[in-house]
Amino acid sequence: MPTAHQARLRIPERARTSRIDYRVPFYDTDAMAVVHHANYVRYLELARVRFLAEHDEPYTRYVEQGYHVVVTRVDIQLKRATRFDETLSVICWLEWVRHASLGFGYQIRCGEELSALAATEHAVVNLSGRPVRMPDARRERLLALFSGE
Amino acid sequence: MPTAHQARLRIPERARTSRIDYRVPFYDTDAMAVVHHANYVRYLELARVRFLAEHDEPYTRYVEQGYHVVVTRVDIQLKRATRFDETLSVICWLEWVRHASLGFGYQIRCGEELSALAATEHAVVNLSGRPVRMPDARRERLLALFSGE
Amino acid sequence: MPTAHQARLRIPERARTSRIDYRVPFYDTDAMAVVHHANYVRYLELARVRFLAEHDEPYTRYVEQGYHVVVTRVDIQLKRATRFDETLSVICWLEWVRHASLGFGYQIRCGEELSALAATEHAVVNLSGRPVRMPDARRERLLALFSGE
Amino acid sequence: MPTAHQARLRIPERARTSRIDYRVPFYDTDAMAVVHHANYVRYLELARVRFLAEHDEPYTRYVEQGYHVVVTRVDIQLKRATRFDETLSVICWLEWVRHASLGFGYQIRCGEELSALAATEHAVVNLSGRPVRMPDARRERLLALFSGE
Asked: Are strands C113-126 and C67-78 parallel, antiparallel or unpaired?
């Protein structure tokens, strides 16, 4: 397992992944005529929310059950600028799971080219924002989603 | 009194006003190298929040008392593009007050030039989002802030 | 024809329309747990860009030909709050076309409910931001898209 | 010198720093009633732009001279949630300078508490986005700003 926060190029072989496609809106560009870098952090959220909905439960269910999954770290490497109306694909997978925290890996691609690599870390908290252990059933479900590589 | 939503050039003579200065960050620009129009709607909020804090109560006090002041209409006319690092001044005043709603007027200036005119309308709601009459004391305090023009 | 900037409920009968669906991301919500009002202005852009691509030309073609279509006015009425993960539909049509300006109408719906009504006005400018008449061919193509109501 | 991208708690002793204060606007909050994490990446930009203006040259001068300083990596650790109307201070310093790239370090504080630690990496590019060596005069000016620790 890589150190928690390290982005990496290779998607772990047996990891479940989710993917969202995102067509760059004009409002995400900046005066360099490319996507402003802070917006990529939002795209990671779109893919992560999709991942939970596809492989675990919709995020709205987390909240109904009294949990939030807050971001405690984002490490993103930007490889290639993206322009208005290009379509990005964000691929997301689970990198690690502990009792009260978890980590995701990401690749952002634009066609055949790599746009960005990222890793995020998260704490599981209750609705007042206090860190809590996630229920065993959820943790086991999540552990099954990643490869153990 | 103009119709509720109509922006106007002249600040009512006896109205109390508030003003915020805002230096345009790079992240507010778009691929035309000017401020993206949706951001001006955010600048109105900055001025309105300042107005309430200066002339009535901080918005955090509204929330503590169980109220939100939600936006029900925004009408904004954009007169002049603004670029990175220019400083905008947003001037805000109260246009009208009813039992469960109120309206603000705005001018956005960049130096001597007019950048935008705007009007917003608001409903007073409780924390579940239901429209409610505001307490008489608050309404009277707000009524005293505008000129009756 | 309504006055240029007036939002209206009824979509003109013979107008061509375009529609985009938008699932509300977490990052569009605010501390009232609903979509922040400034974001709706962005959703209008998504629908307008789709309209031009479907009925006229992709906006990237406008830019290649030396034109931008800048926003000179936004009038939006918010009818109903929207929450994370709800899906909005934004329907857009052309309201009017002049030599150097045009106007769009919009409805934003969430399922069967009306979330917002809006109207926007635009100037056609060159890449330095100066207003210019649009080419006759484009203007005629655009005129054919609306009903004359 | 730490590896290029690593955030660190201690501000290098002899480094020049810049600081901006930022009062959290309502529009930066999300449905957890705290600042959405992607916004902190924008706050870093505010501090970095201030740093260049105070210690080197305004970023607008970079652009006039044909340069952009693009972001190639952001690593941010979030330590404490921040709420509407709290005031954040972002402190920024230069961590390292090479011929065509540079790195900044950041602390974000809310009163006495640490809100975030961050590091960013940047490439110097020309206005078409190609990496270029920065002029020796600029590089020497930048080198003088950091401590050599």
From this structure: antiparallel
